[in-house]
Amino acid sequence: MNPSNLIKKQHLPPNLVLTVGMLFLASAITACQGNSESQNNSNNSTQEVGNTESRLILNNATLEQSNAQGEILWKIQVDEAAYSPDRKKAQLTAVKGNIFEKGQIVLKIKADQGEIYRDGQEIYLKQNVVAVDPRNNAVMESDEVEWRPQESVLMVRKNLRGSHPQLKASAKEGKYYANKQEFELTGNIIATSNKPQMQLKTEHLLWKIPQQKVIGDRLLNMIRFQDKTITDKLVANRAEVHLNTKRVIVQENIEFKSIKPPVQVATNEIIWKYQDRQVTSSKPVTLIHYEQGVTITGNQAEVDLTNNIAYLRGGVQGNSTANAAKLYSNDLTWNINTQIIEALGNVIYEQTNPDFNLTGEKAVGTINDNKIVVSGNGQDRVVTEIFPE
Hints:
This protein has 389 residues and is mainly beta. It has a domain at 284-389: lipopolysaccharide transport protein A fold, CATH 2.60.450. It is built from three helices and 27 strands. It has a 27-stranded antiparallel β-sheet that branches. α2 runs antiparallel to α3. The chain is rod-shaped and about 100 Å long. The chain starts with a helix and ends with a strand.
């Protein structure tokens, strides 16, 4: 590390490095002149002078680094900077400053301790580290970070905490890509959004801050709260959270469970509007009322959990485990609270005890207790088939 290019002292003349060296040297020479011992002792004193002169210590200093094009990479203030004899390493105390990207501040940093390596190409910060991106108000806190100017990456290690007006997150470690304003989190992740509160747990997340998007590509668990009470739970292999619209695109092996009303949703893709508690799917989907034992499947579904209404379309089938009743139709509306079903189009109703079938164009009733009324459309008659024992 070349101090003449790297070090500046505020409000002091430009020959700071030379002045500091001369002070060390003058002090050592004075000590030597006052020593009247043997030549060996004089040689030892001369060696100590060389060691002292090679060690550079700066107090209340400003340090900065530029690239080959003269663009400033970082500029920091320290209470103390102690350089190694080869000037390639420096120990820093009470660090505070800015990191730049193409002349713009991308991170404001501070820490209790720090180290500089490889002529300023690597900066390590330790103890009470805080990094803030002023462009998006993202805050990163940790016990240890490493800044790599050439890669524009902040490596965040040990007890990572990240916060933003839209989201708070903690993880084992992470990487902040300053040029893209993206935060990659790894290990023991807990992310929480507010209004309403939604918590996400997983092992890997990519937080695209400008796009207000969080992407999880590993097994994840999501929980929605309302006044500290759990309303919904979700397990899936992949999710994409859109923080601005408060919706989640969920894919692969989805298990969604509403606490009230007591409904489970199983499918391979849903859009969950977690603020309004609305779930939609354009894939084959199964809805289960796990208290009443009613299961309804369809090729598409819209579920409004706030208003207790579900709409299913395309080859709908309803089953009741209590009485083995089955209902088939093109489309179906299900009032989850009252259990009333309205089925439309090519309706077939089957039940046992007694065994009979009803076919028509419309059916209304409750399948869980066999109270179904099947009707035609004014032109077609209802057909009833009774199967004697």
